[in-house]
Amino acid sequence: MPRAASSIQSPPTPAGLSRDQLLEIYRYLHLTRTLEERLTALYRQSKVIGGLFRSLGQEGESVASAYALQRGRHKDFLSPLIRNLGSLLVMGAEPIQILRQYMAKDQSPTRGRELNVHFGDLERGYLGQISHLGDMVPVMAGITLTFKLRGEGRVGLVYVGDGATSTGAFHEGINFAAVQRCPLVVIGEYNHWAYSTPPEKQFAVKDLAEKVKGYGVPAVTVDGNDVIAVYEATRYAVDRARAGKGVHFIEVKTYRRKGHAEHDDQHYVPAAELEEWAKNDPVDRFVARLLEAGWAAEQDVKDIDDDVKDEIDRATDACVNEPLPPPESALDAVYAQPGRADRLWFRGV
Amino acid sequence: MAEITFLEALRQGLREEMVRDERVFILGEDVGAYGGAFKVTEGLFQQFGEGRVIDTPIAEAAIVGAAAGAAHMGMRPVAEMQFIDFISCAYDMLTNYVATARYRAGLPTPMVVRGPCGGYVRGGPFHSQNPEAAFLHTPGLKIVYPATARDAKGLIKSAIRDDDPVLYLEHKWLYRRIKEDISETDEILTPIGSARIAREGKHLSIITYGATVWKSLEAAEQLAAAGVEVEILDLRTLLPLDDAAIEATVKKTNKVLIVHEDTRTGGLAGEIAARINERVFEWLDGPIMRVTAHDVPLPYAPTLEDYVLPQTEDIVKAARWLAAY
What we know:
The structure holds 2 protein chains of 2 kinds.
Chain A: H1 5-8, H2 19-44, H3 59-67, E1 77-79, H4 85-90, H5 95-102, H6 136-150, E2 156-161, H7 168-179, E3 184-190, H8 208-213, E4 219-223, H9 227-242, E5 248-253, H10 271-278, H11 282-292, H12 298-319
Parallel strand pairs in A: 1-2, 2-3, 3-5, 4-5
Chain B: E1 3-5, H1 6-20, E2 24-28, H2 44-48, E3 53-55, H3 60-72, E4 76-80, H4 91-98, H5 101-105, E5 112-117, H6 132-136, E6 142-144, H7 149-161, E7 166-171, E8 179-181, E9 196-199, E10 204-208, H8 211-225, E11 230-234, E12 237-239, H9 243-253, E13 256-263, H10 268-280, E14 289-293, H11 302-308, H12 312-323
Parallel strand pairs in B: 2-3, 2-4, 4-5, 5-7, 6-7, 10-11, 10-13, 13-14
Antiparallel strand pairs in B: 1-8, 6-12, 9-11
């Protein structure tokens, strides 16, 4: 029996995204959140060596902005911040790499030298941040300057938090990129908290976009918890940058629903505000839209959820008992040549 | 062969590397059509165009950060600090981002940051600095500091070809004062990490670099007339230090005077003295002594600057004292 026409005709999808792409976006959203929940469990078991940084409430803008890039070997390039795990996963970072980083395993991408999402992959197109906020903006200016000089048609994307827009590096970097017309998209994350500091103690303007317009950079403000809106805004900026029209700034209004890191109990955050933003969850909103518009069925979502759980289970099992790096490897690869630092005399006495 | 200045030798090295390797490009303030504050890059903009010699905003952190990003992408940037004094504005970017990139994340960052340093030119506190000590304890960086025109060319070429970030310090007092016969076709590649005996001697060793190599050579002439034969080791590379060359000269003369233009406290001389003490203590016939700038910001008036900085006669007196020890 042929199926009824109504069930094979998909409803029109938004922003030029296919149904498969919408489901893929959902998968990254759910993967990000589930991976962080797994990391929280590992943190409580003291398997995570350092701090744990959650992006709860910010997964939407991280995933949607990265999804607007061309991905693959030597395509577009981004530099994530601590709350952009979702963007890393979109660019091809594997959950097992994140788990190994947090647990400081020898097989982690940085061989136990750096923490959490501070790692990169030049081929897949991402560069880990350093802890000095704002510094990645000049670095990404240089990366996208190179794309321009070589005429490669590649685009770069860099995230900066509301607090980091106070740094000199941010202003130097965005001005440099604007003057050079670098193909760079800057995502300004207005998540309301820089550690415990609210925006009104960080800057005297209402929107981050206002700060940027003075550099001759077009700047828009979007609802950071609306996945489709962030994707559309970023896609526009990426296309514009690729066409040689220079830097574009997108301010995403969102909310950091956990503390700065797991140790931070957020006592400074008004409870009512947290509740309000919990009702405005980007993943819940996206799922509701998928289902209401008929782009996906409940079973599609459940299948993805099961698949993600399975992937994270397998990744955790594969690496949780791996060894830490051998101590003397700490001296390797300080330089290309000669690479190894001297072992000091008192270790040989 | 043609006689060219230290500055021309440096420019020759830059030009040769830009011809040889299209990944090499220059960025900095006023480096383009103007040719740089001291004219180091003069003519390069006209020869290579605005895609290879890039004028930037006055933003040292952005200059160094952008150079790092380009280096990750396979380019070979040479970033100019208009005066090296302004490198402090990029200190975070160099020490936290650039120097750690290979170690923490396996990122290749082949780049050069270069600029005019040093005093004896009445430049005052912000156009005379020697910043090497601020970067010396930064694993991941290399620091070179040529004293001769030949090494000015040879070290810029080696620095550009090096796979790690190199800080190249060029003493502005040497720019037009030092001249040597160097041919355009001379492929000079001074190895990084290798010191040079600038003068052979047997009674004591002066370990030095930069402008004070020449002050020490002047002093050595006067000392020779008084029967003191001084050996002068020109370090050329400050990071990594050429420990073998330092040990060899200590074993030969058994007395060491370390001379540098930078201020005393926390300066390179202290590090060299500590290494000699650890490695060749038994070979010493006297205390390791230092001749350095006094521990003050560098003042402008000639009377003040001359008093603060180490002069040839200071080196002569110190060497006589040590020779008689």
